[in-house]
Structure formats: structure tokens, C-alpha cells
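Step 1: inspect the first sequence and its C-alpha cells.
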Amino acid sequence: MRLRALVLLLRYTGMRIGDAVSLTSDRIKLNRLFLYTAKTGTPVNTVLPDFVLQALEASPKVTCVYFFWNGAGKLDTIFGSWRRRLAKLFELAEVPKGHAHRFRDTCAVELLLAGVPIETVSVLLGHQSVQITEKHYSPWVHSRQQQLERDLKHAWDQDPVALMEGKGTPQVHGKDGRYN
């Protein structure tokens, strides 16, 4: 139950595994999650889908505060433990090279494919700058791809070679039958 709750939390929040594994119950109020990311200290304030909340509630907490660890010891140790569990899950699911960050990538890409602006996705991921988000996720911004295709078509509509190839006209830049 805990593994299921962690997977859903990672997939539908885009959290890094470190932030998810160290999540405390006081970070969730009703359906809202607020935290500062461990990596950058960037604040993330988001909503959780009901089914993710239900999975967290159904999963026995390790302590009254922590969902996924007991709060003692080094965080790196518990991260490693959860990474191994996830690696086993990916192996059972026959997902090659599976790792926790795939859930973060899936969350980001699905949001972008649904038309969520990249600036919003950047905030949800806790990136310090939208350039970081653009570096990793620009290919999945549907509106950018559509604009790119419109721009290319417009450019080709002005290009003499493309016009000649597409329409069979020998006239290029007003020169009859002569080509540069």
C-alpha cells in the first residue's frame, strides 16, 4: 500500500523522490500540498487528486508524521531503500531502465500534452527557472510544435525553390527560366 501511495504521489505531483519520501502529513491540508523542495528550496503549492489522497490515507504511515520513513537516520539511506523498491517494481512491470525520476517526467509531459503552459509546469516541478523546464520538456509543448509547423509552412510559402517544386513554376525572383 505504501509503494502504491508513493508511486501515485510521484506520478501526479512530479515530486522528486527525496521530497516524496520525506513528506510529512502536516504538508497536506485538505487536498493541498505545500513544501519547499529539498534540492532548490523552491516553494511548491499544488493540489492532489482525490485518489492520491485516498492512497496516502489508506497507506499506514511509518510514524504519526511521516508517510514513508521514520524520521531517524540519514535521508540518503531511506532514498536508496525506496529506489531499490521502485527498481524492483519497474523490473516486475518490465520497464527497462526504470527509475523514480520517470514519474516526474511523466507528470510534466502529460501536463504539457494537455496544454498546461510550460511556465505553470515549471512552478509545479519546483524549478528555479522556466529555462530548466524548457531544456528538458520543450519537445512536448504542443502549442510550440504547432507554432513551429505554422512558421515552417509560412517560410516555405515564401521560398522560391519550395514554390517552384510545389507549383512547377519556372519563375524565381522574377527571372524567367533562370535560376541562381
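Step 2: inspect the second sequence and its C-alpha cells, then contrast the two.
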Amino acid sequence: MAKADYIRPVEALHGKLKKEDQVGFAKRRASGAKFTVTRDDWKQTFKDAEKAAAARERQMKFKGVSQSVSERMTNPTYQTIDRQGFAAQSKYTTLRGYVFKKCWDAYGD
């Protein structure tokens, strides 16, 4: 990820300039940081079974936590609790990031 600075008439770019481009432009809402990302057909291959199993385990954890976050953000009981906790902290810039961290830490309990 590279940092992007634009000349004065252009405030921000979002997405790709052409359909065939490998480079995309984005701007983070929370921090306002402008950056570029490369998008390509990335396929990771693992040489030994132990690394492959560890990668699958991390992917499954991320999938489970993402589903928990979606469920928790729509649950009215947790919405008020999470909003109060989010307002009381300053580390996370988005409510979803705050809830994700809580679910990540609670995963497997």
C-alpha cells in the first residue's frame, strides 16, 4: 500500500482509472488517508501441510469473527453496550473495528 498525494484540483480518487488497471485509489473515511492498492490475481500456495493448515485455521477464524460482528451489530441488546464502550475509548476509529476486536478476543471461548 502506497501513500498518494494529489495535485490541487483533484481532491481524491476512488477505484481504478481504467477497467484493465491493476492499481486502485482509495481514501479512508476515518483518518482521511489517501492511498493506492494493487489488485491482481493472487493465489497463495503453501509448500508444507502444516503452513496450509495454519492458514486455513486463520481464515476460518476470520470468517467466524466476521459473522459474529455482523450478528452483534444488528442485535439491539449489544448495540447500546457497544456504542457506550466505543464512546469511552479512543483506540479504534470505527464502531465496526471496535466490535471486531471484541469478537476476535472472545473467539473460541
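Step 3: confirm your contrast with the notes below.
The first strand starts at residue 2 and ends at 3. The chain has a mean pLDDT of 82.
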